[in-house]
Write a structure and sequence with these properties.
heterodimer, A: alpha/beta, 2-enoyl-CoA Hydratase, Chain A, domain 1, seven-stranded mixed sheet, two-stranded antiparallel sheet, 10 strands, B: alpha/beta, eight-stranded mixed sheet, 9 strands
Chain lengths: 296, 284
Protein backbone atom coordinates (compact mmCIF):
# COMPACT_ATOMS: atom_id res chain seq x y z
CA UNK A 1 0.00 0.00 0.00
CA UNK A 2 2.78 2.27 0.91
CA UNK A 3 4.59 1.48 -2.31
CA UNK A 4 3.19 4.39 -4.27
CA UNK A 5 3.14 6.79 -1.46
CA UNK A 6 5.44 9.68 -1.94
CA UNK A 7 8.19 9.57 0.63
CA UNK A 8 8.95 12.67 2.46
CA UNK A 9 12.54 13.80 2.58
CA UNK A 10 13.85 16.15 5.12
CA UNK A 11 15.50 19.16 3.56
CA UNK A 12 19.22 19.22 4.35
CA UNK A 13 20.11 22.61 5.58
CA UNK A 14 23.08 24.51 4.28
CA UNK A 15 23.61 26.90 7.16
CA UNK A 16 19.91 27.27 7.10
CA UNK A 17 20.02 28.43 3.45
CA UNK A 18 18.71 25.41 1.68
CA UNK A 19 17.40 27.41 -1.24
CA UNK A 20 20.59 29.09 -2.31
CA UNK A 21 21.51 26.45 -4.88
CA UNK A 22 18.18 26.78 -6.55
CA UNK A 23 18.75 30.47 -6.80
CA UNK A 24 22.17 29.86 -8.29
CA UNK A 25 23.68 32.35 -5.91
CA UNK A 26 26.20 30.07 -4.24
CA UNK A 27 28.18 28.60 -7.15
CA UNK A 28 31.51 29.00 -5.42
CA UNK A 29 30.68 26.07 -3.16
CA UNK A 30 29.90 23.64 -5.97
CA UNK A 31 32.80 21.61 -7.34
CA UNK A 32 33.69 22.63 -10.89
CA UNK A 33 36.12 21.61 -13.62
CA UNK A 34 37.99 24.36 -15.41
CA UNK A 35 36.78 24.83 -18.99
CA UNK A 36 38.73 22.69 -21.45
CA UNK A 37 40.62 20.64 -18.87
CA UNK A 38 38.94 17.44 -19.99
CA UNK A 39 37.88 16.47 -23.48
CA UNK A 40 35.61 13.69 -24.57
CA UNK A 41 37.13 11.15 -26.92
CA UNK A 42 34.76 10.83 -29.90
CA UNK A 43 35.80 7.20 -30.34
CA UNK A 44 35.65 5.60 -26.86
CA UNK A 45 33.51 8.28 -25.24
CA UNK A 46 35.81 8.60 -22.21
CA UNK A 47 36.49 11.93 -20.62
CA UNK A 48 40.21 12.39 -21.11
CA UNK A 49 42.47 14.70 -19.15
CA UNK A 50 43.57 17.00 -21.94
CA UNK A 51 47.26 17.01 -21.13
CA UNK A 52 47.38 13.20 -21.27
CA UNK A 53 46.75 13.13 -25.04
CA UNK A 54 50.23 14.57 -25.56
CA UNK A 55 51.68 16.53 -28.44
CA UNK A 56 50.53 13.92 -30.96
CA UNK A 57 46.96 14.20 -29.71
CA UNK A 58 46.24 10.50 -29.33
CA UNK A 59 43.66 9.15 -26.88
CA UNK A 60 45.47 7.24 -24.07
CA UNK A 61 42.43 4.99 -23.63
CA UNK A 62 41.72 3.81 -27.17
CA UNK A 63 44.51 5.24 -29.36
CA UNK A 64 42.01 7.39 -31.27
CA UNK A 65 43.64 10.17 -33.27
CA UNK A 66 42.17 13.55 -32.42
CA UNK A 67 41.94 15.88 -35.40
CA UNK A 68 44.68 18.47 -35.33
CA UNK A 69 44.62 22.02 -36.62
CA UNK A 70 46.84 23.11 -39.46
CA UNK A 71 49.06 25.06 -37.09
CA UNK A 72 49.52 22.07 -34.77
CA UNK A 73 50.27 19.82 -37.73
CA UNK A 74 52.91 22.19 -39.04
CA UNK A 75 54.47 22.21 -35.57
CA UNK A 76 54.40 18.40 -35.47
CA UNK A 77 55.84 18.03 -38.98
CA UNK A 78 58.29 20.80 -39.87
CA UNK A 79 61.71 21.07 -38.24
CA UNK A 80 61.47 23.66 -35.46
CA UNK A 81 61.67 27.23 -36.70
CA UNK A 82 61.97 26.36 -40.40
CA UNK A 83 58.42 26.93 -41.61
CA UNK A 84 57.93 30.02 -43.76
CA UNK A 85 54.30 30.52 -44.62
CA UNK A 86 53.10 31.62 -48.09
CA UNK A 87 50.08 33.82 -48.84
CA UNK A 88 49.16 34.13 -45.20
CA UNK A 89 46.60 36.86 -45.78
CA UNK A 90 44.68 35.45 -48.70
CA UNK A 91 40.94 35.60 -48.06
CA UNK A 92 37.87 34.32 -49.86
CA UNK A 93 35.52 36.60 -51.78
CA UNK A 94 31.89 35.72 -52.32
CA UNK A 95 31.40 34.76 -55.99
CA UNK A 96 27.77 33.63 -55.58
CA UNK A 97 26.85 36.41 -53.15
CA UNK A 98 25.91 33.60 -50.82
CA UNK A 99 24.08 35.08 -47.82
CA UNK A 100 26.39 35.75 -44.85
CA UNK A 101 29.39 33.96 -46.40
CA UNK A 102 31.74 36.81 -45.47
CA UNK A 103 30.44 36.68 -41.91
CA UNK A 104 31.00 32.94 -41.75
CA UNK A 105 34.58 33.36 -42.98
CA UNK A 106 35.25 36.05 -40.37
CA UNK A 107 33.87 33.89 -37.56
CA UNK A 108 35.99 30.92 -38.66
CA UNK A 109 39.09 33.10 -38.92
CA UNK A 110 38.61 34.32 -35.37
CA UNK A 111 37.99 30.79 -34.13
CA UNK A 112 40.91 29.12 -35.88
CA UNK A 113 43.47 31.90 -36.30
CA UNK A 114 44.02 30.99 -39.97
CA UNK A 115 42.67 32.82 -43.03
CA UNK A 116 41.16 29.75 -44.71
CA UNK A 117 41.26 25.96 -44.70
CA UNK A 118 44.89 25.44 -45.74
CA UNK A 119 48.28 26.62 -44.56
CA UNK A 120 51.10 26.45 -47.13
CA UNK A 121 54.77 27.23 -46.93
CA UNK A 122 58.29 25.92 -47.27
CA UNK A 123 60.22 24.24 -44.51
CA UNK A 124 62.66 21.50 -43.67
CA UNK A 125 61.65 18.02 -42.59
CA UNK A 126 64.48 15.95 -41.14
CA UNK A 127 66.77 18.55 -42.65
CA UNK A 128 65.39 18.25 -46.17
CA UNK A 129 63.87 21.23 -47.97
CA UNK A 130 60.27 20.75 -48.96
CA UNK A 131 57.05 22.60 -49.64
CA UNK A 132 54.37 21.71 -47.09
CA UNK A 133 50.62 22.27 -47.27
CA UNK A 134 48.34 21.36 -44.38
CA UNK A 135 44.57 21.48 -44.58
CA UNK A 136 42.49 22.39 -41.57
CA UNK A 137 39.28 20.45 -40.97
CA UNK A 138 38.34 23.01 -38.32
CA UNK A 139 37.75 25.67 -40.98
CA UNK A 140 34.35 25.02 -42.61
CA UNK A 141 35.20 21.30 -42.63
CA UNK A 142 38.41 21.93 -44.55
CA UNK A 143 36.37 22.61 -47.64
CA UNK A 144 38.12 23.72 -50.82
CA UNK A 145 37.11 27.05 -52.28
CA UNK A 146 39.13 29.68 -54.14
CA UNK A 147 41.66 30.26 -51.36
CA UNK A 148 42.49 26.60 -50.81
CA UNK A 149 42.71 26.07 -54.57
CA UNK A 150 44.87 29.13 -55.18
CA UNK A 151 47.21 28.55 -52.25
CA UNK A 152 47.86 24.92 -53.15
CA UNK A 153 48.26 25.79 -56.83
CA UNK A 154 50.84 28.44 -55.92
CA UNK A 155 52.59 25.97 -53.61
CA UNK A 156 52.85 23.51 -56.53
CA UNK A 157 54.13 26.25 -58.82
CA UNK A 158 56.72 27.32 -56.26
CA UNK A 159 57.82 23.71 -55.83
CA UNK A 160 58.05 23.22 -59.60
CA UNK A 161 60.07 26.39 -60.08
CA UNK A 162 62.45 25.53 -57.26
CA UNK A 163 62.58 21.79 -58.01
CA UNK A 164 61.31 20.96 -54.54
CA UNK A 165 59.21 18.10 -53.31
CA UNK A 166 55.75 18.90 -51.99
CA UNK A 167 53.93 17.22 -49.11
CA UNK A 168 50.22 17.82 -48.61
CA UNK A 169 48.28 16.75 -45.52
CA UNK A 170 44.66 16.52 -46.66
CA UNK A 171 41.68 17.00 -44.35
CA UNK A 172 38.53 18.08 -46.11
CA UNK A 173 34.85 17.46 -46.51
CA UNK A 174 35.25 18.33 -50.21
CA UNK A 175 34.47 21.38 -52.29
CA UNK A 176 33.22 24.56 -50.60
CA UNK A 177 29.53 24.67 -51.50
CA UNK A 178 29.19 28.39 -50.78
CA UNK A 179 31.45 29.22 -53.75
CA UNK A 180 29.55 26.96 -56.16
CA UNK A 181 31.11 26.21 -59.55
CA UNK A 182 34.20 28.27 -58.69
CA UNK A 183 35.05 25.62 -56.07
CA UNK A 184 34.63 22.87 -58.66
CA UNK A 185 37.11 24.64 -60.93
CA UNK A 186 39.72 24.54 -58.16
CA UNK A 187 39.89 20.77 -58.62
CA UNK A 188 40.99 21.24 -62.22
CA UNK A 189 43.33 24.12 -61.38
CA UNK A 190 45.21 22.26 -58.64
CA UNK A 191 45.37 19.03 -60.66
CA UNK A 192 46.88 20.89 -63.62
CA UNK A 193 49.53 22.41 -61.33
CA UNK A 194 50.23 18.94 -59.89
CA UNK A 195 50.64 17.63 -63.44
CA UNK A 196 53.33 20.22 -64.26
CA UNK A 197 55.15 19.52 -61.00
CA UNK A 198 55.10 15.83 -61.83
CA UNK A 199 56.16 16.26 -65.46
CA UNK A 200 59.32 17.96 -64.26
CA UNK A 201 60.22 14.91 -62.20
CA UNK A 202 59.46 16.31 -58.77
CA UNK A 203 58.17 14.34 -55.81
CA UNK A 204 54.64 14.75 -54.48
CA UNK A 205 53.58 12.98 -51.27
CA UNK A 206 50.01 13.09 -49.96
CA UNK A 207 49.19 12.28 -46.37
CA UNK A 208 45.50 11.54 -46.02
CA UNK A 209 44.10 12.43 -42.62
CA UNK A 210 40.62 12.23 -41.18
CA UNK A 211 38.47 13.15 -43.10
CA UNK A 212 39.46 13.30 -46.79
CA UNK A 213 36.41 13.19 -49.02
CA UNK A 214 34.60 14.61 -52.05
CA UNK A 215 36.34 17.01 -54.38
CA UNK A 216 39.65 16.83 -52.54
CA UNK A 217 39.75 13.04 -52.86
CA UNK A 218 38.72 13.43 -56.50
CA UNK A 219 41.62 15.75 -57.22
CA UNK A 220 44.99 16.30 -55.55
CA UNK A 221 44.58 13.86 -52.62
CA UNK A 222 44.73 10.89 -55.00
CA UNK A 223 47.50 12.26 -57.23
CA UNK A 224 50.53 11.80 -54.99
CA UNK A 225 53.47 9.74 -56.23
CA UNK A 226 53.26 8.27 -52.76
CA UNK A 227 50.01 8.24 -50.80
CA UNK A 228 50.28 7.80 -47.04
CA UNK A 229 47.46 7.82 -44.55
CA UNK A 230 46.91 8.03 -40.82
CA UNK A 231 45.25 4.94 -39.32
CA UNK A 232 41.45 4.77 -39.42
CA UNK A 233 41.11 8.05 -41.33
CA UNK A 234 37.85 8.40 -43.25
CA UNK A 235 38.69 8.58 -46.95
CA UNK A 236 36.22 8.45 -49.80
CA UNK A 237 34.58 10.16 -52.72
CA UNK A 238 30.88 10.05 -51.89
CA UNK A 239 29.49 10.61 -48.42
CA UNK A 240 28.49 7.55 -46.48
CA UNK A 241 24.89 8.71 -46.11
CA UNK A 242 24.57 9.42 -49.83
CA UNK A 243 25.73 5.90 -50.65
CA UNK A 244 23.40 4.35 -48.06
CA UNK A 245 20.50 6.28 -49.56
CA UNK A 246 21.48 5.24 -53.09
CA UNK A 247 21.87 1.52 -52.40
CA UNK A 248 19.32 1.35 -49.56
CA UNK A 249 21.71 -0.65 -47.38
CA UNK A 250 23.71 -0.04 -44.26
CA UNK A 251 27.44 0.08 -44.88
CA UNK A 252 29.99 -1.78 -42.75
CA UNK A 253 32.03 0.24 -40.25
CA UNK A 254 35.34 -0.27 -42.02
CA UNK A 255 33.97 1.09 -45.33
CA UNK A 256 35.99 4.12 -46.51
CA UNK A 257 38.64 3.85 -43.81
CA UNK A 258 42.36 4.12 -44.52
CA UNK A 259 42.57 0.34 -43.99
CA UNK A 260 39.79 -0.20 -46.58
CA UNK A 261 41.67 1.93 -49.12
CA UNK A 262 44.93 0.13 -48.38
CA UNK A 263 43.22 -3.20 -49.01
CA UNK A 264 41.77 -1.96 -52.31
CA UNK A 265 45.06 -0.54 -53.49
CA UNK A 266 44.56 3.20 -53.19
CA UNK A 267 46.94 3.93 -50.30
CA UNK A 268 50.64 3.06 -50.28
CA UNK A 269 51.14 2.86 -46.55
CA UNK A 270 49.37 3.59 -43.28
CA UNK A 271 51.67 5.44 -40.93
CA UNK A 272 51.18 6.02 -37.20
CA UNK A 273 51.17 9.66 -36.23
CA UNK A 274 54.27 9.29 -34.05
CA UNK A 275 56.20 7.77 -36.96
CA UNK A 276 55.05 10.19 -39.66
CA UNK A 277 58.07 12.45 -39.41
CA UNK A 278 60.52 9.60 -39.70
CA UNK A 279 58.74 8.11 -42.69
CA UNK A 280 58.53 11.47 -44.46
CA UNK A 281 62.20 12.11 -43.74
CA UNK A 282 63.15 8.72 -45.17
CA UNK A 283 61.05 9.32 -48.28
CA UNK A 284 62.61 12.76 -48.79
CA UNK A 285 66.07 11.25 -48.28
CA UNK A 286 65.38 8.59 -50.89
CA UNK A 287 64.32 11.22 -53.41
CA UNK A 288 67.11 13.65 -52.69
CA UNK A 289 69.29 13.72 -55.81
CA UNK A 290 72.28 14.48 -53.61
CA UNK A 291 71.86 11.24 -51.71
CA UNK A 292 72.52 11.48 -48.02
CA UNK A 293 73.71 15.05 -47.82
CA UNK A 294 71.98 16.68 -44.87
CA UNK A 295 71.95 20.14 -43.49
CA UNK A 296 71.65 20.60 -39.80
CA UNK B 1 3.93 53.60 -85.62
CA UNK B 2 1.81 52.40 -82.70
CA UNK B 3 1.57 49.00 -84.29
CA UNK B 4 5.34 48.87 -84.53
CA UNK B 5 5.67 49.69 -80.82
CA UNK B 6 3.07 47.08 -80.00
CA UNK B 7 4.96 44.44 -82.01
CA UNK B 8 8.23 45.43 -80.38
CA UNK B 9 6.83 45.08 -76.91
CA UNK B 10 5.41 41.66 -77.71
CA UNK B 11 8.67 40.52 -79.23
CA UNK B 12 10.55 41.78 -76.20
CA UNK B 13 8.22 39.90 -73.89
CA UNK B 14 8.58 36.69 -75.86
CA UNK B 15 12.36 37.00 -76.01
CA UNK B 16 12.51 37.65 -72.29
CA UNK B 17 10.24 34.74 -71.55
CA UNK B 18 12.48 32.45 -73.57
CA UNK B 19 15.93 33.67 -72.59
CA UNK B 20 15.24 34.55 -68.98
CA UNK B 21 13.96 31.13 -68.14
CA UNK B 22 14.32 30.66 -64.42
CA UNK B 23 17.23 28.41 -63.51
CA UNK B 24 14.86 25.86 -61.99
CA UNK B 25 12.97 25.67 -65.30
CA UNK B 26 16.22 25.05 -67.15
CA UNK B 27 17.04 22.28 -64.66
CA UNK B 28 13.75 20.62 -65.65
CA UNK B 29 14.52 20.87 -69.37
CA UNK B 30 18.09 19.64 -68.84
CA UNK B 31 16.76 16.52 -67.08
CA UNK B 32 13.96 15.72 -69.55
CA UNK B 33 13.91 12.04 -70.49
CA UNK B 34 13.33 13.14 -74.08
CA UNK B 35 16.45 15.35 -74.10
CA UNK B 36 18.75 14.25 -76.95
CA UNK B 37 21.52 11.98 -75.67
CA UNK B 38 25.26 11.88 -76.34
CA UNK B 39 24.95 9.07 -78.89
CA UNK B 40 22.32 11.03 -80.85
CA UNK B 41 24.66 13.99 -81.16
CA UNK B 42 27.57 11.71 -82.00
CA UNK B 43 25.61 9.92 -84.73
CA UNK B 44 24.25 13.15 -86.19
CA UNK B 45 27.42 15.25 -86.17
CA UNK B 46 30.04 12.66 -87.11
CA UNK B 47 30.23 9.94 -89.73
CA UNK B 48 31.48 6.38 -89.41
CA UNK B 49 31.45 6.27 -85.61
CA UNK B 50 33.06 3.07 -84.34
CA UNK B 51 32.38 2.50 -80.66
CA UNK B 52 35.17 1.04 -78.53
CA UNK B 53 34.59 -0.67 -75.21
CA UNK B 54 36.25 -1.27 -71.88
CA UNK B 55 38.88 0.23 -69.63
CA UNK B 56 41.28 -2.76 -70.02
CA UNK B 57 41.24 -3.22 -66.25
CA UNK B 58 37.84 -4.16 -64.95
CA UNK B 59 34.92 -3.93 -67.37
CA UNK B 60 32.98 -1.86 -69.88
CA UNK B 61 30.95 0.91 -68.26
CA UNK B 62 27.87 1.50 -70.39
CA UNK B 63 27.29 4.93 -68.87
CA UNK B 64 30.25 6.12 -70.93
CA UNK B 65 30.44 5.68 -74.70
CA UNK B 66 33.39 6.46 -76.87
CA UNK B 67 35.26 5.71 -80.05
CA UNK B 68 36.53 7.17 -83.28
CA UNK B 69 34.68 8.97 -86.05
CA UNK B 70 35.05 11.57 -88.78
CA UNK B 71 34.04 15.20 -88.49
CA UNK B 72 33.70 15.74 -92.23
CA UNK B 73 37.31 15.05 -93.27
CA UNK B 74 38.90 15.14 -89.81
CA UNK B 75 39.40 12.00 -87.71
CA UNK B 76 38.40 12.63 -84.09
CA UNK B 77 37.92 10.76 -80.84
CA UNK B 78 34.47 11.21 -79.34
CA UNK B 79 33.40 10.37 -75.81
CA UNK B 80 30.04 10.86 -74.15
CA UNK B 81 28.15 10.16 -70.97
CA UNK B 82 25.02 8.37 -72.10
CA UNK B 83 21.56 8.58 -70.57
CA UNK B 84 18.59 6.60 -71.84
CA UNK B 85 15.13 7.65 -73.03
CA UNK B 86 13.31 4.90 -71.12
CA UNK B 87 13.66 3.17 -67.77
CA UNK B 88 15.14 0.07 -69.43
CA UNK B 89 17.69 2.14 -71.28
CA UNK B 90 18.47 4.11 -68.18
CA UNK B 91 19.05 0.99 -66.13
CA UNK B 92 21.44 -0.24 -68.82
CA UNK B 93 23.23 3.15 -68.77
CA UNK B 94 23.08 3.45 -64.97
CA UNK B 95 21.12 6.69 -65.47
CA UNK B 96 24.24 8.31 -66.88
CA UNK B 97 26.25 7.96 -63.69
CA UNK B 98 29.65 6.48 -64.53
CA UNK B 99 31.70 4.15 -62.37
CA UNK B 100 35.49 4.54 -62.14
CA UNK B 101 35.92 2.19 -65.12
CA UNK B 102 33.86 4.63 -67.22
CA UNK B 103 36.30 7.44 -66.51
CA UNK B 104 39.21 5.08 -67.09
CA UNK B 105 37.78 4.02 -70.44
CA UNK B 106 37.46 7.69 -71.37
CA UNK B 107 41.07 8.29 -70.35
CA UNK B 108 42.25 5.31 -72.37
CA UNK B 109 40.51 6.70 -75.46
CA UNK B 110 41.94 10.17 -74.84
CA UNK B 111 45.50 8.81 -74.56
CA UNK B 112 44.86 6.90 -77.77
CA UNK B 113 43.72 10.16 -79.39
CA UNK B 114 46.90 11.84 -78.19
CA UNK B 115 49.02 9.12 -79.75
CA UNK B 116 47.34 9.53 -83.13
CA UNK B 117 47.05 13.30 -82.87
CA UNK B 118 43.25 13.29 -83.03
CA UNK B 119 41.22 16.03 -81.37
CA UNK B 120 38.98 14.88 -78.51
CA UNK B 121 35.34 15.91 -78.23
CA UNK B 122 33.36 15.00 -75.12
CA UNK B 123 29.60 15.18 -74.58
CA UNK B 124 28.64 15.54 -70.93
CA UNK B 125 25.31 14.58 -69.46
CA UNK B 126 25.40 13.24 -65.91
CA UNK B 127 23.87 14.07 -62.58
CA UNK B 128 27.21 12.96 -61.14
CA UNK B 129 29.66 10.10 -60.79
CA UNK B 130 27.96 7.05 -59.28
CA UNK B 131 27.86 6.81 -55.50
CA UNK B 132 28.06 3.14 -54.54
CA UNK B 133 30.14 0.49 -52.84
CA UNK B 134 31.84 -0.80 -55.99
CA UNK B 135 32.58 2.74 -57.16
CA UNK B 136 34.34 3.48 -53.86
CA UNK B 137 36.17 0.13 -53.82
CA UNK B 138 37.53 0.77 -57.28
CA UNK B 139 38.55 4.35 -56.54
CA UNK B 140 35.97 6.78 -57.93
CA UNK B 141 37.99 9.65 -56.48
CA UNK B 142 41.23 8.41 -57.99
CA UNK B 143 39.65 7.86 -61.40
CA UNK B 144 38.28 11.41 -61.54
CA UNK B 145 41.50 12.91 -60.17
CA UNK B 146 43.58 11.04 -62.77
CA UNK B 147 41.42 12.37 -65.59
CA UNK B 148 41.78 15.95 -64.37
CA UNK B 149 45.54 15.60 -64.26
CA UNK B 150 45.91 13.79 -67.58
CA UNK B 151 43.46 15.99 -69.50
CA UNK B 152 45.28 19.12 -68.38
CA UNK B 153 48.39 17.97 -70.24
CA UNK B 154 46.86 15.99 -73.13
CA UNK B 155 48.84 16.91 -76.21
CA UNK B 156 45.93 17.21 -78.57
CA UNK B 157 43.08 19.76 -78.89
CA UNK B 158 39.93 19.09 -76.88
CA UNK B 159 36.41 20.48 -76.63
CA UNK B 160 33.73 19.48 -74.14
CA UNK B 161 30.03 20.22 -74.46
CA UNK B 162 27.56 19.94 -71.58
CA UNK B 163 24.42 18.73 -73.34
CA UNK B 164 22.16 18.19 -70.32
CA UNK B 165 23.33 17.91 -66.73
CA UNK B 166 26.92 18.68 -65.79
CA UNK B 167 27.03 17.24 -62.30
CA UNK B 168 30.08 18.08 -60.24
CA UNK B 169 33.35 16.10 -60.37
CA UNK B 170 31.67 13.45 -62.48
CA UNK B 171 31.23 16.04 -65.23
CA UNK B 172 34.51 17.86 -64.69
CA UNK B 173 36.34 14.55 -65.23
CA UNK B 174 35.56 14.95 -68.95
CA UNK B 175 35.67 18.75 -69.07
CA UNK B 176 39.27 19.82 -68.52
CA UNK B 177 39.44 20.80 -72.18
CA UNK B 178 40.64 23.70 -74.34
CA UNK B 179 37.06 24.86 -74.82
CA UNK B 180 34.03 24.19 -72.63
CA UNK B 181 30.64 24.79 -74.19
CA UNK B 182 27.09 24.33 -73.01
CA UNK B 183 23.79 23.89 -74.73
CA UNK B 184 21.45 26.71 -73.80
CA UNK B 185 19.19 24.56 -71.63
CA UNK B 186 21.86 22.61 -69.81
CA UNK B 187 23.25 23.12 -66.32
CA UNK B 188 26.71 22.71 -64.82
CA UNK B 189 27.16 22.79 -61.06
CA UNK B 190 29.07 21.73 -57.98
CA UNK B 191 26.13 19.52 -57.06
CA UNK B 192 22.41 19.35 -57.72
CA UNK B 193 20.24 22.20 -56.41
CA UNK B 194 18.50 19.59 -54.22
CA UNK B 195 21.84 18.50 -52.73
CA UNK B 196 22.96 22.10 -52.26
CA UNK B 197 19.75 22.99 -50.39
CA UNK B 198 19.90 19.87 -48.29
CA UNK B 199 23.57 20.35 -47.30
CA UNK B 200 23.50 24.08 -46.64
CA UNK B 201 19.93 24.59 -45.46
CA UNK B 202 19.03 21.04 -44.38
CA UNK B 203 15.97 21.39 -46.59
CA UNK B 204 15.94 19.78 -50.05
CA UNK B 205 12.58 21.36 -50.83
CA UNK B 206 14.32 24.74 -51.23
CA UNK B 207 15.97 23.47 -54.43
CA UNK B 208 14.32 26.16 -56.58
CA UNK B 209 15.88 28.89 -54.49
CA UNK B 210 19.22 27.05 -54.61
CA UNK B 211 19.06 26.78 -58.40
CA UNK B 212 18.69 30.56 -58.73
CA UNK B 213 21.51 31.27 -56.29
CA UNK B 214 24.04 28.75 -57.57
CA UNK B 215 24.68 30.20 -61.07
CA UNK B 216 24.29 26.95 -62.94
CA UNK B 217 22.80 27.99 -66.28
CA UNK B 218 24.76 28.33 -69.50
CA UNK B 219 24.29 32.11 -69.62
CA UNK B 220 25.34 32.62 -65.99
CA UNK B 221 28.43 30.46 -66.48
CA UNK B 222 29.34 32.28 -69.69
CA UNK B 223 29.18 35.52 -67.75
CA UNK B 224 31.41 34.07 -65.02
CA UNK B 225 33.88 32.96 -67.69
CA UNK B 226 33.58 29.31 -66.65
CA UNK B 227 32.45 28.33 -70.16
CA UNK B 228 33.32 29.76 -73.57
CA UNK B 229 30.19 29.39 -75.67
CA UNK B 230 26.46 28.81 -75.42
CA UNK B 231 24.83 26.74 -78.17
CA UNK B 232 21.29 27.86 -78.95
CA UNK B 233 18.29 25.62 -78.72
CA UNK B 234 14.77 26.15 -79.99
CA UNK B 235 12.20 27.24 -77.35
CA UNK B 236 11.33 24.41 -74.97
CA UNK B 237 14.56 22.54 -75.56
CA UNK B 238 16.65 20.71 -78.13
CA UNK B 239 14.22 17.78 -78.31
CA UNK B 240 11.75 20.08 -80.14
CA UNK B 241 14.14 20.51 -83.06
CA UNK B 242 17.12 18.25 -82.63
CA UNK B 243 18.59 18.91 -86.08
CA UNK B 244 18.73 22.65 -85.40
CA UNK B 245 20.94 22.31 -82.34
CA UNK B 246 23.01 19.42 -83.69
CA UNK B 247 23.74 21.22 -86.98
CA UNK B 248 24.62 24.41 -85.17
CA UNK B 249 26.93 22.50 -82.85
CA UNK B 250 28.58 20.77 -85.79
CA UNK B 251 29.35 24.03 -87.59
CA UNK B 252 30.77 25.56 -84.39
CA UNK B 253 32.91 22.47 -83.76
CA UNK B 254 34.39 22.61 -87.25
CA UNK B 255 35.39 26.24 -86.94
CA UNK B 256 36.80 25.84 -83.45
CA UNK B 257 38.78 22.69 -84.23
CA UNK B 258 40.37 24.36 -87.27
CA UNK B 259 41.54 27.08 -84.95
CA UNK B 260 42.77 24.77 -82.19
CA UNK B 261 44.54 22.44 -84.60
CA UNK B 262 46.47 25.39 -86.03
CA UNK B 263 48.10 26.13 -82.67
CA UNK B 264 51.44 24.59 -81.80
CA UNK B 265 51.32 22.16 -78.91
CA UNK B 266 53.13 24.38 -76.47
CA UNK B 267 50.72 27.28 -76.99
CA UNK B 268 47.76 24.94 -76.79
CA UNK B 269 48.87 23.49 -73.45
CA UNK B 270 49.84 26.84 -71.96
CA UNK B 271 46.48 28.33 -72.91
CA UNK B 272 44.66 25.35 -71.43
CA UNK B 273 46.65 25.69 -68.22
CA UNK B 274 45.83 29.40 -67.99
CA UNK B 275 42.19 28.76 -68.84
CA UNK B 276 41.75 26.91 -65.54
CA UNK B 277 44.50 28.76 -63.65
CA UNK B 278 42.52 31.99 -63.60
CA UNK B 279 39.49 30.65 -61.69
CA UNK B 280 39.17 31.86 -58.13
CA UNK B 281 37.67 34.70 -56.12
CA UNK B 282 39.99 35.95 -53.38
CA UNK B 283 41.77 38.98 -51.97
CA UNK B 284 45.24 39.25 -50.47
Amino acid sequence: MNLFKKRKYLPVGNDGQSDTKKDGANEANTPSVPEGMYIKCPSCGQAIYKKSIGASKICPECAHYFRVSSKERVRMTADAGTFQEFDKKMEAKNPLNYPDYEKKIKTMQEKTGVSDAVVCGKCKIGGFDTVLCVMDSGFIMGSMGSVVGEKITRAFEFATKNKLPIIIFTASGGARMQEGIVSLMQMAKVSAAAARHSEDGNLYVTVLTDPTTGGVTASFAMLGDIILSEPKALIGFAGRRVIEQTIKQKLPDEFQTAEFLLEHGFVDKIVERDCMNNVLTEILRLHNPKGCERSE
Amino acid sequence: MYLQKFYDSIIRKVVNAVSNNAASEIVKIARKVSRPSALEYINHIFTGFIEFHGDRNFKDDKAVVGGIAMLDDMPVTVIGIQKGHSTEENIERNFGSPHPEGYRKALRLMKQAEKFNRPVITFINTSGAFCGVGAEERGQGEAIARNLLEMSTLKTPSISIVIGEGGSGGALALAVTDRVWMLENSVYSILSPEGFASILWKDASRSKEAAELMKITANDLLELGIIDKVIKEVPGGAQNDFAFTANLLKSKLRVELEELCAKDKETLLEERYQRFRKFGAFTE
